[in-house]
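Hello,

Our lab assistant flagged a job as stuck in the queue for most of the afternoon. It eventually completed. Since we weren't sure the result was trustworthy after the delay, we are filing this so someone can double-check. Below is the sequence as submitted and the structure that was eventually returned. Let us know if re-running is recommended.
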Amino acid sequence: MKAKIIGTGSYLPERVLTNQDLEKMVDTNDEWIVSRTGMKERRIAGPEEFTSDMGAAAARAALADAGISADEVDFIIVATITPDYLCPSSSCLIQTALGAKKAAAMDVQAACTGYIYALAIAKSFVETGLCKNVLLIASEKLSSVTDYKDRSTCILFGDGASACVVSSDAQKKGHLISSICLASDGEQSDLIVIPSGGCRTSAQHYLKMAGNEVFKHAVRRMESACRECLNLAGLKETDISWLIPHQANIRIIDAMAKRFEHLPPERVFKTVHKYGNTSASSVGIALDELLKQEQIQEGEKILLTAFGGGLTWGAALLTASGESA
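-- returned structure --
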């Protein structure tokens, strides 16, 4: 059995936080933000809208797209660094919100690489026969850990959720998960940190990031993951139809695009200008938009890659297919 994505969905909160709004909050301006990040606006969840709420909304969209009910889900995986609680897991809250009574549930934490890590877990569960349908959700309320007095970070982050159904159903069209590679480097764990929430600390709630150092690692690590993923599949750069990098900022995305000189710039899919960096959910939101906007032909290959705190990084190769392999 080969695992395939048979449905995708996403959710973005209604509130839009523009660069002009940020100009009133911190010492910054639209030109500076756009030139350094490519971001013009981002979405912000309401005060009573949480990670599980957004995740459930994205999940409903993915289930509808896949044409299956919540009762058919065997496992729910939620990738997030902003769970509703440390315990219970956001996945359990989403399970009950969906009425997916037969599904087991767990959260995973790999920062901005969470969607790729969760996809690897879902693929393994399906291909070993443990599950038929796995519901993968990546949801983040980054506004809850953003210091809106810190202009170096508050311009970057937005809220949102994405989801997909990973299945072995031979009757469903979808995108085969052809190959995945994952990596981490704990020696660089101090570069992106949310100090509070664990057993070591209790009062340092806001996300902190060494931006310049993160940039150096992000481009190199994502490129290496993409190359490894292609090698695992026995493919070349010229075989890629679309590249969806983590939507961290435009400089990282453009630097990644330059490393893939045979891929036309218009085939590097971007949502960063609309939503900012939504951490684990960013790749999934972009994938959902790409599949809804473009007519992806059978055999076309979509390369996903992400990089985040930990450090963690990875890549996944999807192949459009009407058949199971």
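-- support follow-up --
The delay was a queue issue, not a problem with the job. The result is valid. The chain is about 30% helix and 25% strand. Residues 4-172 form a domain with the Peroxisomal Thiolase; Chain A, domain 1 fold (CATH 3.40.47.10).
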